[in-house]
Amino acid sequence: MEAISGLSLSSSAWTGPVADRRRSGGSVKFSRVRPVDLGGLKGSSGSNRSRRVELNIYCCHSRNNGALGQQNPGKSKDEALLLQSKANDVAPYLNDRCIYLVGMMGSGKTTVGTILAGVLGYSFFDSDKLVEQSVGVSSVAQIFKEHSEAFFRDNESKVLESLSSMHRLVVATGGGAVVRPINWRYMKQGLTIWLDVPLEALARRIAAVGTASRPLLHGESGDPYTKAFMRLSTLAEQRGAAYANADARVSLEHIAAKQGHADVSALTPTSIAIESLEQVKNFSIKDPTVRQSSYLKG
Ligand SMILES: Nc1ncnc2c1ncn2[C@@H]1O[C@H](COP(=O)(O)OP(=O)(O)OP(=O)(O)O)[C@@H](O)[C@H]1O
Ligand SMILES: O=C(O)C1=C[C@@H](O)[C@@H](O)[C@H](O)C1
Q1: pTM of the predicted model, to two decimals?
Q2: Which-ligand-closest: CA of 214?
Q3: Dihedral of the alpha carbons of 203, 159, 193, 150, in degrees to the nearest 10
Q4: Which end of the chain, N or C, is less packed with Cβ atoms under 10 Å?
């Protein structure tokens, strides 16, 4: 007999309607109950019994992007207005579909995702955090250590499958979610955006915060920047083609060139969010039948 799993998410960042939403206390809950194979997920209590996996994620994001306004308030205000106007423009094309951000670790999926969620009135979720919660382990690094990468990937797929039936979410996916074809089947229920960031910029960002939370960067020797750069280069080589399956590509180098900057570090997260919306619109205009990608046909 198949086990029954319910995915229940609650978010303090709730800003708009989602299928099956329910209000509960101060937070908003939405849940789905449908048959999936729970494998090794927490909550299992025997193969023939109904089991429920609870995922409670509290995410917070501000409608007024904190990255704005600190250096150049005038420019920030213009950017914020442009962002909102782009969001209003793109919303009909999205038609409540979820947005999945894909990209290497450190590419800004969380940073840009929270901005997009705020401006679209969507809720934001981080799939790594949902996996941590479903497994009942406090960090991805710990899951890799106590179980294995394969165990993490299996649970990541289950989380993405559960999310695939929902609406009005922005999801920051794990950096490696793109490697499993089945995950694309789930993510293509919504719209996928690849944040394409030069490796040097990724390595700089990661070196600044350390690699402790990123198990795939453990084990290299050298200074933090070089360690991150070397490992990221290998991963990028392995995954380049997989990221390119995304419906929309947001190249930071391209935005920097358009804005006349020599370095992508000059770009604000808001300007990246604006370009993301622009690319979503371009994609939707060119190919409104989102689910007909060549990847899915294969
Ligand atoms: N446009 C940007 N400019 C400078 N720093 C940024 C930018 N976007 C994100 N960062 C910084 O880079 C780091 C990684 O960002 P973020 O957590 O958003 O990436 P991510 O893709 O969600 O990472 P992961 O996949 O590892 O969870 C953070 O320290 C964040 O502040
Ligand atoms: O790039 C990757 O493979 C990963 C990125 C993180 O988001 C986590 O999903 C995990 O550390 C693996």
Answers
A1: 0.80
A2: 2
A3: 50
A4: C
